[in-house]
Amino acid sequence: MSALVHIGLPKCASTSIQSALAGARGARFLGKSAERPGPLAAIAGWLGRDVKRRNYADPVVQDLARHELPHAVALSDATIARRAAHLADLAARTPGKALVLSDEVLSGAGFVVYGRARRSQDQIVDLACRLFGPGTVVVVVLRHPSRFLASYWKHLVQTGYPLSYAGFLEAQQPAAEGPDKIVDVLRLATLVAAASARGQRVAVAPFEDVVAGGPILVGIAAEVGVTLPSRLPHRRQSLDDTALLARLTENRAGRRRRRDALPPERIAADEARFRRAVERGRLVEPEDFEAPILADLRPEMAALAAAGLPLERWSYPL
Q: How many helices (H) and strands (E) does the chain have?
């Protein structure tokens, strides 16, 4: 069977892509739905709980996408065979259409897996390709590292993260470790090469091309017979700085899930940076932390550019 598995990244037009995929010609769309969850789901999210049955019509596919693929849970060969058979049965019910799955959690950077043991991107890709079969194309949307990290941090703040942007960037340094280190999901040239060595296909589309109605994502979908519109709808807006500041202040005083994932000494060590950001009125403040991150990612971006992605057009670090 043919399949398109879109695995994010988060904050890279995933909701817009899901909206387009849901109505795309040549696709049997399995989820995640672009529609917002209802009020009970919103309350559960505010409390820091994963929302079960979130916008998936098929509970087996939902469990696969939201739990079994992204989380570091052991799956027996028999379980994998049952999941693959279930997907094959779904494909057989709509002959001539590709199975399409889209969920930013599958990038390994989804907010549902924050602070939990998770599979690496490469493990997720390998398992997804085994489940969907040899006709699978995995697509990842890449955003300029500076803008990706800023947007990801803002979303974390909305869900309880207590550190300033400078504190977040400190956690992204090459030698750093911790539940909030997420920058390694940008190593997509390494991901593409590892998958290719196994005979698997990972395709990368720049976020900037996707939101501008460029042809790259449309061409990737066409490989499996899925027809996307050339321009995707814009679905979400981030909070402004005033609202983010209020949320960040609340997070530092409260005990929501994101805060509990970090040791208290890290929060205390971030106090001066938090106060400085408030005084300056600029919450996204790279300071001296961004340059080492961009330098560390430069070989990855250069390799993608050498393979044909026009990243220089958007001033990626090359």
A: 15, 5
Measured CA to CA, the distance from residue 12 to residue 205 in angstroms comes to 10
Question: Can you tell me the distance from the alpha carbon of 152 to that of 168, in angstroms, rounded to the nearest whole number?
Answer: 10
The Cα 155–Cα 9 span in angstroms is: 13
Long-range contacts at 260-269 (CB < 8 A, ≥ 24 apart): 261/114, 261/115, 261/179, 261/180, 262/162, 262/163, 262/178, 262/179, 262/180, 266/163, 266/167, 267/162, 267/163, 269/167
- How would you write the pLDDT of the chain (318 residues) with one tens digit per residue? 899 999 999 999 999 999 999 989 999 999 998 665 444 444 444 444 444 445 798 999 999 999 999 998 899 999 999 999 999 999 999 999 999 999 998 998 866 566 678 899 999 999 999 999 999 999 999 999 999 999 999 988 988 899 999 999 999 999 998 888 999 999 999 999 999 999 999 999 999 999 998 899 999 999 999 999 877 776 666 678 888 888 898 898 876 667 677 888 999 999 999 998 888 877 887 777 899 999 999 999 999 999 999 999 999 999
The reported pTM is: 0.89
b/e sequence 37-63, b meaning 16+ C-beta within 10 Å: eeeebeeebeebebbeebbbeeebbbe
DSSP bridge pairs for 227: 25
Report residue 220 CA to chain centroid gap. Answer: 18
What tokens does 199 get? 């005979």
Residue type, 317: P
The answer to whether 228 and 24 are in contact (CB under 8 A) is yes
